[in-house]
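This protein record is not my work; I was only asked to verify it. Would you go through it and say whether the fold makes sense for this chain? Here is the record exactly as it was handed to me.
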Amino acid sequence: MSLERVGIFHLGGDLPVHRLGFGAMRITGEGIWGEPPDLDEAKRLLRRAVELGIDLLDTADSYGPEVSERLIGETLAPYPPRLVIATKGGLVRPGPSEWKRHGTPEHLRKACEGSLRRLRLERIDLYQLHAPDEKVPLEDQLETLADLQRQGKIRHIGVSNFDVSQLERASKIARIVSVQNRYNLADRSSQPVVDWCERHGIAFIPWRPLGMEGLEDGPVATIAERHGASPTQVALAWLLASSKVMLPIPGTSSVKHLEENVGAARLSLEPDEIEVLRKLA
């Protein structure tokens, strides 16, 4: 398998990555909580991702919590050349499947330091505010990340779960190089954010890129059968074709599913197929 066909995106202008990465949320336990049920399989999955040419790994301190970052550091450090590690801070986990926003400057500084330690890095390539905390001025949250960047602990700053107005405010404080929002065949609610990213030439990283609620049959199944592909491969191929700034990071806990996702790189949809899929949502 080769990722060359998906093309390269220069994250922040100076970090070339293939436009198909790996999201490391699911190398944890049920509810994204605790250790994975099969630790050896989780580590094999990470190594296989790198073997397949994936050069962007996305994680967060809240995955586990701390488990995903720790496993990446234990398994892959010292990292191979050109492997970009992205992580996030700003959410805390009271329990399985629970997510709470915590964006105070004190917490974000502590979260970044913890991520550096677990990932075994001196500087994080891409550090993203996981979600804006409405209890804390947005400017304070972004200024904290900008200060960490000035200290050399962050190379580039990204944001997640932001709308356009929040992006405009954030961009006045720090240089934003990526936005990570939910976006897939079934959910296009972040289309204005995708359009904003295109205008500004920054990466849009869709989370839950394989979501197809209610769309697995019909045109998706027909197109998949036509190409000898799976519906999830069609979903990824559509994302890649929909925008030059799109950088999907499908996650999984299975090596088999990882290889299937990477297989989407060989799939070239026809213009009429792209249009049919565009009209589904």
Observations:
- Residues 105-119 form the longest helix (15 residues).
